[in-house]
Design brief:
heterodimer, A: alpha+beta, 9 helices, 13% strand, B: 581 residues, alpha/beta, FAD/NAD(P)-binding domain, Flavocytochrome C3, Chain A, domain 1, five-stranded mixed sheet, 15 helices, globular
C-alpha cells in the first residue's frame, strides 16, 4: 500500500523573485504524530530548500513558529496533521504583520511595543541583594502568574481585529505584559506604564471575549488583562475628574 | 565600534550584557543573536536552578555534591566560587521580577534534584528557564546602552594582532555580511546537542560559538563529556524534567520493576513512604548513571518496544492530579500534546536523550579564553564546574554566575584596551563575505544535500559516540566525520537569494557542527578511561593517574590535536563516587 500523503498549500513570497505572493502546493507524507512544522521541515530538507520559516524548540515554549494554519493563528509545532487530514492544509504567515519572506513576518513593531510598556520591576527604592529576597506569598504570585506565561508568539496580534485595523494599538501581549508587572507585589511602576497602556483609544474598542485569548496557546488571557487594565484606567479617570488629587 | 560585543542572547548573554551596563554605564554594548533573544534555548529549561538559601543547607554541601557529580573532573576553585556567588545571583533575579515558586510565608521554595544531599533547587513551577530568560530579556530592555542585532548570524571571529575585536555577521533580513567590531567579545551561544539525532535541544543549538572559537585557534575543553538526560519523550526528544522525579515520580521497566536498584543507586522506598524520594538515591541519582542503567535494562530485554525505539516508564500517577498541576504542569502539557498520554492516568514513555555539553570553549574562572579579548560563558564555555557529569539545576546558575563574570571581565578589558586600526579587521570581513558568496550563494556544481550530510553526521555520533563507546566505535565515527568534511564542499543550495536565506544558515550551521562533532569524537577516542558521562566499555575504570586532566582539542588541518591540562584539586581529593547510601 502506498504511504498515505496529504497536501500543504504554502504561502510563498520571495521579494527578489516574485512581485506578488503566490501559493505553492506540496505533497507530504501523512504521519499521525507529525505536526505542521514536521511537514515543513520535511519539505525544507528533502524537497525544496528555498522554503523559509522560523522555528526552534518544537515544544511550544520558544514562540518562534507561529503561522496561520487554515486561517487560524497556531504554533505549528503544536498543530497536528491528524486534526486536518485528509483535507489540504493552508499555511500562511501570521496575519496583520508585514511579510519579509515566505512564512517569515516582520516583528519590529511588536518588539518596539514590548519595550514601550517598561516590562521590568520599577521601584522607588531598590533593596540591596544582600538584604535577601522580597517576600511574595503564593497568593500574591498567583495574582499575576498567568500574565507572566506569555511566550511572545504573537498569535494574539494575528487574531486581533483591532490591531488589524490600526497598528497604533498596543495590542494584547504587550498590554498583558504591562498588567503582569502592574500586578506584581514587588513593582511600583503602574503610574509610569499608564500613559503607554492608554496611549491609543483603540483599547476601548476591544471586546470582552477576545479572539486573542481564544488563540493564546499558553492560556495567558490577554483579553482579561485588557479588561482589568481598562477598569483600572476608568477608575483612575473618574478619580481625576471627581477628586483631582486622587490620582497622584 | 562597540566596547563589548556579546554573541548570543540567551541567559548567559543577557546576564553578561546587564553586568557590563552595571559595571560602567558609559560602555557601549551590543548583542548579536541569530534569533530574537526570547527564542534562545534557555527558554526550554524546566526544573530549576541551584543555590544555597535554606538554613539546613551549606555552601560546603553544594560544592561537594557538584564535585562528586562531576566525577572529580570539575576544577575545585571554580566550583567553590560558583557556589559562593550563586545565591546572590538568584536573589538578584528575584529582584528583577522572576516569578519564583514560594513557601506559604512568601520565601523562596526549593526542591531536590538528582545527586543532591539536600533540596536546593529554586524553581518557577516547571518553566524555570522560560521565566529566567524572559525576566533577563525584559530587564535588559531598560538599559539604553544595550544595542541589539536581532537575527544576525555570526560567521567568524575577527582577530588582529592576537586580539579578538569583533565578528562578521549576516543580517538575515537583507543577507548583508558585515563586520561588527568591539574592543572585547563574549561568546554565549549555548550548546551543540544538534550534532546528535535525538536531543532535547532546539534547532538553533548547533555549536556556532564553539566552532568559531575553535577555528580561531581557541581549544575546546572536555568535549568528550556529553550529558544524556534519562527522561526524554521518544521521537521528539522533548524533555520531561527531573522535577517529575524530585516530586516523587518513579522509573519502571516493562515488568513494573524499579530497575535502578540493580545499578548501584540504592534501595527503593515504597512510594507511600513519607521519606520517598530519598536524596542521592534511585530516581534521584545523577543523570549519567540513570542513562547508563537504561542501556543495561535494554540489553537485558527489560525495556518496552515503541515506534521510536525502546522505552521505560516514568510513573507520576501516584502524585495525583492536584500536585501534578501545581508542581509539574508543563510535564502534563507536554505529555498530553506530544506523547498523547495524560500522566495523571498513564505512565510516560521515556528514554535517554542528548541534553547538554559539559565541554566547551576553554575559559578560566574569569571567563577569559586564551585568545586576548575573547570571553565565553554558559553552555558554550567550559570553566569547568561540570566536569564529567553536570548536576541537574547547575546550568542555569552557571549561566548567571559566569555570564555576570564574563560581563565584568569584558568591561574591564574594553576599558584598558583602546581600539586598534580597524582597516585590517574590515579587510578580513570582506574576505569572509567573499568566502560565503563563493562557497555558497554563487557556488556552481555539487550534488550533496545539506540534510543528508547532517543525518549521516548525527547517525554516526549516536552509533559511535553515544552513552557507551569503544575504540572501534569511536574510530569509525572519526573516519565518518572525516569523510563528511571531505564531502561538505560539494553541497549545493536550492536557495541563492539574500532575504532570510535559511538554507544558507543551515549550511553554515552544518559546517560548524562538523567541527564540534570532530572535537567530541577525537577527544573521546583519546580518553582511554571511563568517567561520568564518558563510558568506554574497553576501559571501564576511572584512571586518575593518567586522566585527572581536562582534554583540550586544538584545530589542525587534519584531526584535532589533543592536549591535557591538570584538573584543579584543592580540598576534595578524588574518591569513589557512591550513591544510594
Amino acid at each position: 500500500m502506498a504511504e498515505p500523503s496529504m497536501t500543504l498549500e504554502i504561502f510563498r513570497y520571495r521579494p527578489e523573485v516574485e512581485q506578488e505572493p503566490t501559493f505553492q502546493s506540496y505533497t507530504v507524507p501523512y504521519r499521525e504524530d507529525w505536526v505542521v512544522l514536521d511537514a515543513l521541515n520535511y519539505l525544507k530538507d528533502q524537497v525544496d530548500g528555498t522554503l523559509s520559516y522560523r522555528w526552534s524548540c518544537r515544544m511550544g515554549v520558544c514562540g518562534s513558529c507561529g503561522m496561520m494554519v487554515n486561517g487560524t493563528p497556531k504554533l505549528t509545532c503544536a498543530a497536528f496533521l491528524k486534526d486536518y487530514y485528509p483535507a489540504p492544509v493552508r499555511v500562511e504567515p501570521l496575519a496583520n504583520f508585514p511579510v519579509e519572506r515566505d512564512l517569515v513576518i516582520n516583528m519590529d513593531d511588536f518588539m518596539h511595543k514590548l519595550r514601550e510598556v517598561k516590562p521590568w520591576i520599577i521601584r522607588e527604592q531598590e533593596k540591596p541583594v544582600s538584604a535577601g529576597e522580597y517576600l511574595q506569598t503564593p497568593t500574591e504570585l498567583a495574582s499575576y502568574k498567568q500574565f507572566s506565561m506569555c511566550i511572545n508568539c504573537m498569535l494574539c496580534y494575528a487574531a486581533c481585529p483591532v490591531y488589524g485595523m490600526t497598528q497604533d494599538f498596543l495590542g494584547p501581549a504587550a498590554i498583558a505584559l504591562a498588567h503582569r508587572y502592574n500586578l506584581d507585589s514587588r513593582d511600583q511602576g503602574q503610574a509610569l506604564r499608564k500613559d503607554v497602556v492608554f496611549s491609543h483609544e483603540a483599547i476601548w474598542e476591544c471586546t470582552f471575549v477576545g479572539e486573542c485569548s481564544v488563540v493564546c496557546p499558553k492560556d495567558v488571557d490577554p483579553a482579561g488583562a485588557i479588561q482589568q487594565e481598562k477598569v483600572a484606567g476608568a477608575i483612575d479617570l473618574v478619580k481625576s475628574v471627581l477628586i483631582p488629587w486622587g490620582s497622584r | 565600534m562597540h566596547d563589548v560585543l556579546i554573541v548570543g542572547g540567551g541567559g548567559a548573554g543577557l546576564r553578561a550584557a546587564i553586568a557590563v551596563a552595571e559595571a560602567d554605564p558609559k560602555l557601549d554594548i551590543a548583542i548579536v543573536s541569530k534569533v530574537y533573544p526570547m527564542r534562545s534555548h534557555t527558554v526550554a529549561a524546566e526544573g530549576g536552578t541551584a543555590a544555597v538559601i535554606k538554613e539546613n543547607d551549606s555552601l560546603e554541601k553544594h560544592i561537594s555534591d557538584t564535585i562528586t557529580g562531576s566525577d572529580w573532573m570539575a576544577d575545585q576553585d571554580a566550583v567553590e566560587l560558583f557556589v559562593k556567588e550563586a545565591p546572590a545571583e538568584l536573589i538578584q533575579l528575584e529582584h528583577w521580577g522572576c516569578p519564583w515558586s514560594r513557601e506559604p510565608d512568601g520565601r523562596i521554595a526549593v526542591r531536590p534534584f538528582g545527586g543532591m544531599t539536600i533540596e536546593r533547587t529554586w524553581f518557577a513551577a516547571d518553566k524555570t528557564g522560560f521565566h529566567l530568560l524572559h525576566t533577563l530579556f525584559q530587564t535588559s530592555l531598560k538599559y539604553d546602552a544595550v544595542k541589539r542585532y536581532d537575527e544576525y548570524f555570526a560567521t567568524k571571529l575577527l582577530v588582529e594582532n592576537g586580539r579578538c575585536q569583533g565578528v562578521t555577521a549576516i543580517e538575515l533580513r537583507s543577507g548583508m555580511v558585515q563586520p561588527i567590531l568591539a574592543k572585547a567579545v563574549i561568546l554565549c551561544t549555548g550548546g551543540a546537542g544538534r550534532i546528535f539525532p535525538f536531543t532535547t535541544n532546539g534547532a538553533i543549538k548547533t555549536g556556532d560559538g564553539m566552532a568559531v572559537a575553535y577555528r580561531a585557534g581557541v581549544p575546546l575543553k572536555d568535549m568528550e563529556f556529553v550529558q544524556y538526560h534519562p527522561t526524554g519523550l521518544p521521537g521528539t526528544g522533548i524533555l520531561i524534567t527531573e522535577a517529575a522525579r524530585s516530586e516523587g515520580g518513579i522509573l519502571v521497566n516493562k515488568d513494573g520493576y524499579r530497575y535502578l536498584q540493580d545499578y548501584g543507586l540504592g534501595k527503593p522506598l515504597d512510594i507511600t513512604d513519607p521519606r520517598h524520594p530519598l536524596k542521592r538515591t534511585m530516581e534521584l541519582g545523577p543523570r549519567d548513571k540513570l542513562s547508563q542503567a537504561f542501556v543495561h535494562e535494554q540489553e537485558k530485554g527489560r525495556t518496552l518496544p515503541g515506534p521510536y525505539g525502546d522505552v521505560v516508564h516514568l510513573d507520576v500517577r501516584h502524585l495525583g492530579e492536584k500536585k501534578i498541576d501545581k508542581k509539574i504542569p508543563f510535564v502534563r502539557e507536554l505529555s498530553k500534546n506530544y506523547a498523547g498520554i495524560d500522566p495523571v492516568y498513564e505512565p510516560i514513555p521515556v528514554r535517554p536523550v542528548v541534553h547538554y555539553m559539559m565541554g566547551g570553549i576553554h575559559t578560566d574562572i574569569e571567563a577569559a579564553t586564551p585568545l586576548a579579548g575573547l570571553f565565553a560563558a554558559g553552555e558554550c564555555a567550559c570553566v569547568s564546574i561540570n566536569g564529567a557529569n553536570r548536576l541537574g539545576s547547575n546550568s542555569l546558575t552557571e549561566l548567571l554566575v559566569f555570564g555576570a563574570r564574563a560581563g565584568r571581565s569584558a568591561a574591564a578589558f574594553a576599558r584598558e584596551h583602546p581600539q586598534s586600526d580597524t582597516r585590517a579587521l574590515e579587510a578580513q570581513a570582506r574576505d569572509e563575505q567573499e568566502r560565503i558568496r563563493k562557497n555558497f550563494i554563487a557556488k556552481q556544481g555539487g550534488k550533496e544535500r545539506i540534510a543528508r550530510l547532517r543525518t549521516e553526521m548525527t547517525a554516526t555520533m549516536e552509533s559511535g559516540a553515544g552513552i557507551y563507546r569503544t575504540e572501534s566505535s569511536l574510530q569509525e565515527t572519526c573516519n565518518k566525520l572525516a569523510e563528511l568534511k571531505d564531502r561538505f564542499p560539494r553541497i549545493t543550495l536550492d536557495d541563492r537569494s539574500l532575504t532570510f536565506n535559511t538554507e544558507l544558515t543551515a549550511a553554515l550551521e552544518l559546517e560548524f557542527m562538523l567541527n564540534v562533532a570532530e572535537a567530541v569524537a577525537y577527544s573521546a577516542l583519546a580518553r582511554t578511561e571511563s568517567r561520568g558521562s564518558h563510558q568506554r566499555t574497553d576501559y571501564p575504570e576511572r584512571d586518575d593517574k593518567k586522566f585527572l586532566a581536562h582534554s583540550l582539542a586544538y584545530r589542525t588541518e587534519g584531526p584535532p590535536r589533543i592536549e591535557y591540562l591538570d584538573v584543579v584539586i584543592t580540598r576534595w581529593p578524588p574518591a569513589e563516587r557512591k550513591y544510594g547510601e
